[in-house]
Write a structure and sequence with these properties.
Shape: elongated
Largest sheet: 12 strands, mixed
Structural class: alpha+beta
Strand content: 35-45%
Radius of gyration: 24 Å
Number of domains: 3
Number of strands: 16
Oligomer: single chain
Low-confidence stretches: 1-27, 275-279
Helix content: 10-25%
Number of helices: 5
Order of helices and strands: HHEEEHEEEEHEHEEEEEEEE
Distance between the termini: 34 Å
Length: about 290
């Protein structure tokens, strides 16, 4: 009886797996005449964006044609452009191309897509693209007006650029007489609370604001039309910060940036490293599948 029960569970599991694979591959007419008709596909929760694409070895797509083929197959509008910003090689003999998404010329913050190329052909792609954006990207506020909202939110006693010694040090460090810590706003599209859904994106000015007293530093996103603070990202902090990142091979994954003293209460999967980092205290290594 137990074995029959086990076989039944296994059968259900295999059925569920097969069903999810069929769903993921989107075996419908829209893909029959595209470069992705034989690909293994995984979609995001909206069902619009392919977050993981495995192409057969004999069905690869040239790097330079990938996003035009993607746009046709998955209805990514021509208002969107993907721009390469980093290329690296790995131990699998692949060249990995990282791209940022731009909508009407404006970069989407925290959005990336990776193409894995071998012998000139993309054989695997993964990441997160935002479909269905319909936004006006003309700001109502000026950069200076937006900066006042950012400064009011931080409300520091003093800022790094107000100290001439800090400014002089930066110019010397960068060997650039025009270098300054004064924050410059970059127009971007930023999703509130980093929830990467099309309805959550705002046109923002992103500032890098470095406070001297009390010392702190933030990326701060100010809505370019209303002055609302959309996101505030600490660049100096203690503690563990949950977030997400675009991995090389597994799409968008959850991660935690840890800044705690792991030696005090290390997670069970961490192991003491006998090399003692910097000869000053315990360090740790981790193996976590």
């Amino acid at each position: 009886m137990f074995s029959s029960f086990l076989i039944g569970i296994l059968s259900l599991s295999l059925f569920a797996f097969a069903f999810s694979e069929i769903q993921a591959q989107q075996l419908d007419e829209r893909l029959y005449n595209t470069a992705f008709k034989d690909a293994r596909l995984i979609f995001d929760k909206s069902g619009e964006a392919a977050i993981d694409i495995q192409l057969k070895k004999d069905s690869g797509i040239p790097v330079e044609l990938f996003f035009s083929e993607y746009g046709k197959a998955f209805n990514l509008s021509k208002d969107n452009e993907l721009k390469s910003f980093q290329v690296s090689k790995d131990d699998l003999g692949q060249t990995n191309h990282r791209y940022k998404q731009f909508y009407k010329g404006i970069e989407l913050a925290e959005v990336q897509y990776i193409l894995h190329e071998k012998n000139g052909q993309v054989i695997h792609a993964n990441g997160k693209l935002i479909h269905g954006l319909e936004m006006d990207v003309t700001p109502t506020l000026t950069e200076n007006e937006a900066l006042q909202y950012a400064l009011a939110n931080i409300n520091a006693e003093s800022y790094m650029w107000e100290n001439k010694k800090n400014e002089a040090h930066l110019k010397k460090e960068l060997n650039d007489p025009s270098a300054t810590m004064f924050p410059k706003g970059q127009l971007m599209l930023s999703a509130k609370n980093f929830d990467l859904k099309k309805e959550n994106f705002h046109l923002v000015y992103r500032f890098d604001i470095y406070a001297e007293k009390p010392i702190d530093r933030y990326y701060i996103d100010v809505d370019a039309n209303t002055g609302e603070i959309i996101n505030k990202i600490s660049r100096i902090r203690s503690g563990d910060v949950p977030g997400q990142g675009t991995s090389f091979y597994n799409g968008v994954v959850p991660l935690t940036v840890a800044d705690t003293a792991l030696s005090l209460n290390p997670p069970s999967r961490w192991h003491v490293d006998s090399w003692m980092a910097y000869e000053s205290g315990a360090s740790w290594w981790v193996a976590d599948p």
